[in-house]
Amino acid sequence: METEQQLISAIHRKEKDAKRRLYERFAGYATAIAQRYVPNHDEVHDVLQDSFVKILTSIDSFHYRGEGSLKAWIATIVAHQSLNYIKKHKQIIISDYLPEEPVTEEEPDVERIPPDVLNHLIGQLPTGYRMVLNLYVFEQLSHKEIGKLLGIKPETSASQYSRAKNTLARLIKDYLKTGKTLFKDR
Predict the structure, then answer these.
(1) What CA–CA distance (Å, rounded) separates 154 from 163?
(2) How far apart are CA 72 and CA 66, in angstroms?
(3) Which of 11, 15, 122, 151 makes a 20 to 30 Å CA pair with 186?
């Protein structure tokens, strides 16, 4: 398999199918990231299109820093394009003043959940919860960084994360009990 460095070199040399190879190699990965933020299939397609336009038009500014750096760069672009899409097209409710939710005492057995089901369960979270959960868990941003990115206080980010985690735990427990999940688009 072609390394990231070889692929980037081929793109810089303007090899005819290098950008297509980049797309084919990372499209599935990018789709999985977009689906964590935007659970609607048609909207994911829009986010992916915008993401790959940005990736392919700014690839010359990418600086290779070792194997995995291209993948991380693509993940960052897809996450940011997903956030931009949500900000533009969705009503986002992130508030310091939400009613208290019951705290889940124990962590559910996430290992028993198929990845596609887990993605659908994450997709059932309210948009604000889903954004903060993704940024904190998958993008590994601090609550201070999330607050700056979303224009909220770090404490609000921490609260949204806690609520997202508790809500997701309840959804997982319900799925494990019934084997069913409510599939809906947001």
Answers:
(1) 14
(2) 11
(3) 151
Is the pLDDT at 36 greater than 70? The verdict is yes
Give the contacts of 51 (CB within 8 A, at least 6 positions apart): 30, 34, 74, 77, 78, 81, 82
pLDDT in tens, 139-161: 999 999 999 998 899 999 999 99
Residues 49, 51, 53, 151: is their CA dihedral positive or negative? positive
Q: How many alpha carbons lie under 13 Å from residue 46 in its C-beta half-sphere?
A: 14
Amino acid 22: pLDDT = 97
Residue 185 confidence (pLDDT): 41
Q: For the purposes of burial, counting CB atoms within 10 Å of the CB of 124, is it exposed (0-12), middle (13-18) or buried (19 or more)?
A: middle
Tracing tokens 């659970």 back to the chain, one arrives at 39
Q: State the DSSP string of 102-170.
A: PPPSS---GGGS-HHHHHHHHHTS-HHHHHHHIIIIIS---HHHHHHHHTS-HHHHHHHHHHHHHHHHH
Residue 146: CB partners within 8 Å, gap ≥ 6?
132, 135, 136, 152, 154, 157
DSSP classification of residue 3: -
1 CB neighbour count, 10 Å cutoff? 5
